[in-house]
Amino acid sequence: MVAVTARPARWHRNMSAKVAAIPMIATALCVFVGGTVWTVVYSFTSSKLLPKEKFVGLSQYERLWGSSKWLISIENLAIYGVLSLIFALVIGFVLAALLDQKIRFEDTFRTILLYPFALSFIVTGLAWQWILNPDFGVQHVVRSMGFESFAFDPLYNSDIVIYGVLIAGLWHETGLIMCLMLAGLRGIDEDIWKAARIDGIPMWKTYLYIVIPMMRGIFITAIVLIASGIIKVYDLIIAQTGGGPGISSEVPAKYVYDAMFLSQNLGQGFAASTMMLLTVIIIVVPWAYLEFGGKRRG
What we know:
Blueprint: H1 2-12, H2 15-42, H3 59-65, H4 68-99, H5 106-114, H6 121-131, H7 138-144, H8 161-186, H9 190-198, H10 203-214, H11 216-231, H12 233-240, H13 252-262, H14 266-297
Family: Belongs to the binding-protein-dependent transport system permease family.
InterPro entries: ABC_transporter_permease, MetI-like, MetI-like_sf
Domain ABC transmembrane type-1: 74-289
């Protein structure tokens, strides 16, 4: 009898908050879920300037994967995503470990390192477009110092242009990752450091085998934030290179925009959007299952 009467009590608890959340849930279902389903359905049509219900099967996807521009954009996103994830985590953690040594002017250094994150990707891209410009950027400054043979123009070299974009992206996001890591390090009990020193454990082993596993939640949060930055690399590309030289710095998000608004081919843009969504699902679903399903079973 107690168990039967307890369920209604739990259901009616915080009822006003649940009622207030109904508009938000309905909006999410209509806008996000409904928009996603609509995009997937119309990716199988021959929609051009306006949507039309003329289904063409997988022809949009065949055309998509036969496009060199799409293949280059996938390659660029893979290079940028993997390197951005690795370097942002490593550099952010190293900077946090250095600041955690109670150095002088820590607040000043932390502010300087975090400041780039306050800028938009457009501002960051324009700033680094100027810095990497061979006529008045780093190359010009070094050559004016007497090093006439010095060459550094990644944004104008189709073979390495994505790495020039990567430099700007790391400059933008590393400060935030550093602050997250520093907060995690400050949450480590001081007794752990003392015990490691008493046992004679080298500092690098303390970080690698003790501290980093304890910061698992911080690393997951950092990875999610970095992943969101990888998706937003569209702004950085537009500001720095515009997709050039040629199509050497194209990314999937720009391909979608060009297909839908410049080429006025909604079907092709929807097909590219669906492939991006499928990639996200393939990555997120297994991670969510391992992260939350394992805990539930435990």
